[in-house]
Write a structure and sequence with these properties.
243 residues; 8-stranded antiparallel β-sheet; 5-stranded antiparallel β-sheet; 1 helix; mainly beta; single chain; globular; 15 strands
Length: 243
């Protein structure tokens, strides 16, 4: 009987406590998210930083200098002129959402593997998402289109045929380093290729290396790079949102 009385007392106290809880107790009003107009008809969002819209190459420079790039502005696209060098943005970035479209040229049937329309986009000048004509072109899985080069193979091969435009949408969280230069948290990449998820929040193990293992060197914001790998890759509609 005593236990029963204690049970009812507990129910009364619990009911009284629940009665004091209000929906407003868990509502958060500040800060208010800013209004951003969504992209329509292929246009970037209203808060995007335009890196290339087909009209100018001014957002880009030769790596390590302020010199104008030698890539070609052609019919609203930016095209690699082989052996003129890779390029980078004049602005440095940290965490970002990046959109870019690229096209592998046709008439390259004699090339195979890594030699078939090779390029790459480097986040913070160090972490590469591979650009390659991987349409019916077998190579090592962590080096094909959409790979985080030599670290993560894409979940699927979403390539269109050469001559058709490909789209990458990349969400990048940069690694963090303490004042002593030690990494305290890894970077992560999420990548959509032609609207298909191919990298699902994968951990960046360190710098992109052709030979050897990734390195973890302390750094802050850094430019986005596009690679000249001796292939006339074309680019268009490149924009970025800082996160």
């Amino acid at each position: 009987m005593k236990r029963l009385r204690l049970f009812f007392v507990f129910l009364l106290i619990s009911s009284a406590t629940v009665g004091q809880v209000k929906p407003e107790d868990t509502e958060v009003w500040e800060p208010e998210p800013p209004v951003v107009a969504s992209a329509e008809k292929g246009l970037p969002p209203s808060d995007a930083i335009i890196l290339f819209d087909g009209s100018s190459l001014d957002a880009w420079q030769e790596i390590g200098s302020k010199n104008k790039i030698q890539w070609e502005l052609y019919d609203g696209t930016m095209r690699v002129v082989p052996n003129t060098g890779s390029i980078e943005t004049r602005q440095a970035f940290g965490d970002i959402q990046l959109h870019l479209e690229w096209k592998a040229p046709i008439g390259t049937e004699e090339y195979k593997g890594q030699n078939k329309s090779n390029s790459g986009v480097f986040l913070q000048s160090r972490y590469e998402v591979q650009i390659l004509d991987s349409y019916q072109n077998r190579t090592y899985s962590n080096g094909q289109a959409g790979a985080v080069y030599k670290q993560h193979a894409p979940l699927v091969n979403a390539m269109k045929k050469p001559g058709e435009w490909q789209a990458y949408d990349i969400v990048f969280k940069a690694p963090r380093f303490d004042d002593n230069g030690s990494k305290v948290s890894s970077g992560y990449l999420t990548v959509f290729h032609n609207g298909i998820l191919i990298q699902n929040h994968v951990e960046i193990l360190g710098t992109t290396e052709y030979l050897g293992q990734p390195k973890n060197e302390a750094h802050g914001k850094a430019p986005i790079r596009l690679q000249d790998h001796e292939s006339p890759i074309s680019f268009r509609n490149i924009w970025v949102r800082e996160l």
